[in-house]
Amino acid sequence: MKVVHLSNFDDGDGASIAAYRLHRGLLRLGHDSTMLVAEKRTEDPAVQLFQPLRDLFSRLRRRFRRERITAAWPATATLALPATSCSAMTAPRTAATYWSNYRPLM
Questions:
Q1: Closest Cα to residue 13, out of 33, 37, 32?
Q2: First to last CA, the chain
Q3: Residue 52 in this model has a pLDDT that exceeds 50
Q4: Strand partners, 36
Q5: Could you list the residue range(s) of the whole structural domain that residue 40 is in?
Q6: pLDDT at 64 (0 to 100)
C-alpha cells in the first residue's frame, strides 16, 4: 500500500510525533509510506519537505480549489492535494493529514 502523511513537522508536538510514529510503523510493515512536512526536523530520507509552487498560476489554482472544496465540503469528502515539486506525490492510495498549529500555504 502507498501512503502519504501530511504534517507540519516530522518531530515536535503531539500530532507530529503521532504522524511520524505511524509513518515509521508502516515502513516497518513493508508499506510504501512517505511523509510530507512544512518543516523538516529529522534526517529520515522518507520524510520530504513540502514546498508548494509559488508562481501566480499555482497560487490562484490553490485558492480556487480551496474555495471550491470549502463550498462543497458537506457533500464530498475529497482531499485535494496542491501541485508541488515533490516527487512523492505519485498516486498515493491513502493520504493522512495531521494538523496542529495550522498555517495556510499562501
A1: 37
A2: 31
A3: yes
A4: 6, 48
A5: 1-51+86-101
A6: 92
Does residue 106 lie in a domain region? no
Domains contained in the chain, number: 2
Contacts of 94 (CB under 8 A, 6+ apart): 1, 2, 3, 4
Model confidence pLDDT, tens digit, residues 66-90: 888 888 766 545 455 555 545 445 5
Q: How many residues does the chain have?
A: 106
What gap in Å lies between CA 92 and CA 65, rounded to an integer? 19
CA–CA separation, 82 and 28 (whole Å): 28
Do residues 41 and 17 make contact, with C-beta atoms less than 8 angstroms apart?
no
Chain centroid offset of residue 82 CA: 9
